[in-house]
Design goal:
binds zinc ion; Fatty_acid_hydroxylase; Sterol_Desaturase_Related; 250 residues; 2% strand; transmembrane; transmembrane helix; mainly alpha; single chain
Length: 250
């Protein structure tokens, strides 16, 4: 037990193995707890950094200096908590779709990661375009109620959109079975990254637009245009599909 505590990867593997074998109500309870903790604690940390810590150090700037409108954050958290429940329920599918806990080799991990990055870009861009059609825009409108975004906007979505997001990894696993450890790492990264692109913060405003490093970290600027302008910048992780279909704006 002491060695488990000293080795984070071993501990994570141990917890995943226990989660895979746990009765489903217990596994669901754990998944709900992890999602709510990541959303609420992670969002609060990001909020504190962007509102207080970075400005006190003179680092970066808020993209929209206005505060969120009254009641906005409470509304976002309410929707976000429902989305967390949906995400948690869908993680139970990893128990039957997964292929062990970790990939068999570094090469397997590398091609699975590359395949997922491509799949995720196409899936998220395609479903986001669908959400902007006249049949689904009412549901997607919940997310667009936030024009001045906050880290809590990340999962402030209609339950239908929550389900679409929650199906990203399970639908990929129907094509490429992942180890449950890989699935959860990608899932956790997705939660953190989605909060980041809604952070309303430019960490390096002194760097000119188009600078190679700025292009790596300017996704909050990129996604903010989607919230302020609407039918541009549908991609989350990359811009190539926006460029390909003429919806890119920066
Ligand atoms: Zn949208
Ligand atoms: Zn958004």
């Amino acid at each position: 037990m002491v060695s488990l505590l000293l080795h984070p990867i071993d501990t994570f593997t141990f917890l995943l193995a226990a989660w895979m074998q746990a009765p489903w109500p217990l596994a669901l309870l754990a998944a709900v707890g992890v999602h709510l903790s990541m959303y609420l604690v992670g969002g609060s940390i990001a909020w504190t950094f962007n509102q207080h810590f970075w400005p006190s150090l003179g680092v970066g700037r808020n993209l929209d200096p206005n505060p969120p409108r009254p009641g906005q954050v409470r509304m976002e958290i309410r929707h976000g908590m429902v989305a967390c429940l949906i995400l948690a329920v869908m993680t139970l599918s990893y128990r039957s779709l997964s292929d062990g806990i970790w990939p068999r080799s570094v090469w397997t991990a590398a091609w699975q990661l590359a395949a997922f990055v491509f799949y995720n870009a196409v899936y998220s861009y395609g479903t986001h375009r669908l959400l902007h059609t006249r049949w689904l825009i009412r549901a997607h409108g919940v997310h667009h109620r936030s024009v001045r975004v906050t880290p809590f906007t990340s999962y402030s979505v209609h339950p239908l959109e929550g389900l679409v997001i929650a199906c990203t990894i399970p639908s990929f696993m129907l094509i490429v079975p992942l180890g449950v450890g890989s699935a959860f790492l990608l899932h956790g990264f997705g939660l953190a990254y989605t909060a980041y692109i809604h952070s309303n913060y430019d960490l390096l405003p002194q760097l000119p637009e188009g600078h190679w490093f700025k292009r790596l970290i300017d996704h909050p600027i990129h996604h903010r245009f989607h919230h302020t302008l609407g039918n541009v910048n549908f991609g989350f992780t990359g811009r190539w599909l926006d460029r390909l279909f003429g919806t890119h704006k920066l």
